[in-house]
Amino acid sequence: MGAHKLLFSELKLWTSGGGGWIARLHKGGCGKASLSSCSPKVCIVGSGPAGFYTAQHLIKARQDVEVDIYERLPVPFGLVRFGVAPDHPEVKNVINTFTQTAKHSRCSFYGNVNVGKNVSITELQQAYHAVVLSYGAEGNRSMGVPGEDLAGVYSAKDFVGWYNGLPSCRELSPDLSCETAVILGQGNVALDVARILLSPIDILKKTDITQPTLEALAESQVRRVLIVGRRGPIQIACTIKELREMVNLPDTRPDMVAADFDGVKEALKDLPRPRKRLTELMLKTALEVPGEKEQERRSKASRTWGFRFFRSPVEVLAEPGHSRIAGIRLAINKLEGSGDGAQAVLTGEVEDVPCGLVVSSIGYKSLPIDPSVPFDSRKAIVPNTMGRVKQAAGLYCSGWLKTGPTGVIATTMNNSFDTARSILEDMDSGTLDMSAAKPGSQSISALLEKRGVEPVTFSDWEKIDNVEMKRGESRGKPREKLLTVEEMLHVAWT
Ligand code: FAD
Ligand code: NAP
């Protein structure tokens, strides 16, 4: 049964036009006499790590707060489901904590609700004392170069969405018939994409990677992956664990350009420890003659990967007379300044690299979802101070929408706890107006029903979860994801 059906069975009605309760109030709720003792109602938009960690902190800190989480998709967990690489199952253990939060008696999940389309932020603000925007970064930075739209060029966001079963990326079907792939950007997402392109199928088939992706990768002709960065080895954005995975990836060998590392050894001593260890591993991989065993492993490898530094994309090149890519033109850069802050400056020289696949992995980007919410288009974030949206009382933000699209789950957790603390402070200080009772999900459910939108509850999600795990079991995988919203809704409601 859909969430709103449950709610209606309790006969709680709210009229947005009439501005108040119009029917009898439910058992345990606030009557007019007890308005001041009403429990604070908070709604969260987005059920990724930011949404769940914000909810968790609020529920733990106050015994009276009620939290509703609205999610666009019928399934929860955001990038933990649709971003984290399938061969990193341990990272997804955070889902256990999120599930505990979702099942808490003072937390409700409403999936299949697209905030900004099905319900506006203003409507949410009328229904709740506080609204927290935690809807992540669903766009991507574009390269802004000619040829970017040619067939064979993909954003990492779409490529990752494809292998992770994001419904909107189901039909991407990237063409993997070429030998060389170029990935632009050298962050952890770039390394995820490189690893998925080059991993032996026997490894991937034990993960929750989607079946169509597995079949496409089994046929893939990609043998060489170049991971291109605009700055140098000392500025690389990936972390050591992910680099180590590349170095040890079975059936692959590294292929670097020694000259890219000129002067790097000398700079080691001044680097902070994590950066120093990362750079040492790169130097070892690029320049040292490996031991006998490693030499043998490398000589047998059928695939190669390598970093290319000091290169910025200037044009994606087309095959003559075709709309398919033939290669990429890279500007050769030099660095001005040193350390993290060093800037890539064009030298005027360019280099053409033949390739049949380009994945642009230069960052995700948050998008505005409702014109009533302040949005900083330059930084692509909701402008905020400690999670309080500027010039918008009662409105908060957390996660990537608050900080921009960087940071691992632990970083997102901390910034979401900070936002929750701001909300709690505002509740305690009276800055957040809680003088009037708010209807919460009851009014929103009524609106959604009027608009023909049926939310997916957390127990509906658990049905989807069960079906996916069962399908996976028969293939020796942890899960086989449902790939369309229609299929998810069908399972949820039958
Ligand atoms: P998200 O996780 O994106 O959650 C946002 C949620 O909001 C989504 O569920 C989305 O569907 C929903 N939403 C969007 N629009 C609406 C709307 N209009 N209405 C309602 N809901 C909406 N970190 C690690 O620690 N380890 C890793 O291995 C790791 N791998 C990663 C791999 C990739 C490819 C990426 C991109 C990131 C990875 N991260 C990893 C980082 C981690 O995923 C982020 O720190 C974290 O997911 C950010 O959380 P968030 O809640 O802000 O955004
Ligand atoms: P990222 O770490 O910010 O890396 C972005 C890369 O794109 C950098 O190399 C950056 O180079 C480059 N870039 C940005 N703009 C560019 C431009 N205009 N032209 C050329 N290059 C450009 O972002 P990400 O890889 O998308 O990862 C996002 C976050 O998720 C990170 O915090 C990451 O650690 C996390 N994540 C973690 C894991 C994991 O833990 N396993 C996996 C995936 C993602 P510059 O440095 O020169 O700007």
UniProtKB/TrEMBL annotation:
One of its GO terms (molecular function) is oxidoreductase activity. NADP(+) binds at residues 186-189, 230-231, 242, 407. Its EC number is 1.18.1.6. Keywords: Electron transport, FAD, Flavoprotein, Mitochondrion, NADP, Oxidoreductase, Transit peptide, Transport. Pathway: Steroid metabolism; cholesterol metabolism. It holds the Pfam family Pyr_redox_2. GO terms for biological process: cholesterol metabolic process. Gene3D superfamilies: FAD/NAD(P)-binding domain, NAD(P)-binding Rossmann-like Domain. FAD binds at residues 50, 71, 79, 115, 400, 407-409. This is NADPH:adrenodoxin oxidoreductase, mitochondrial.
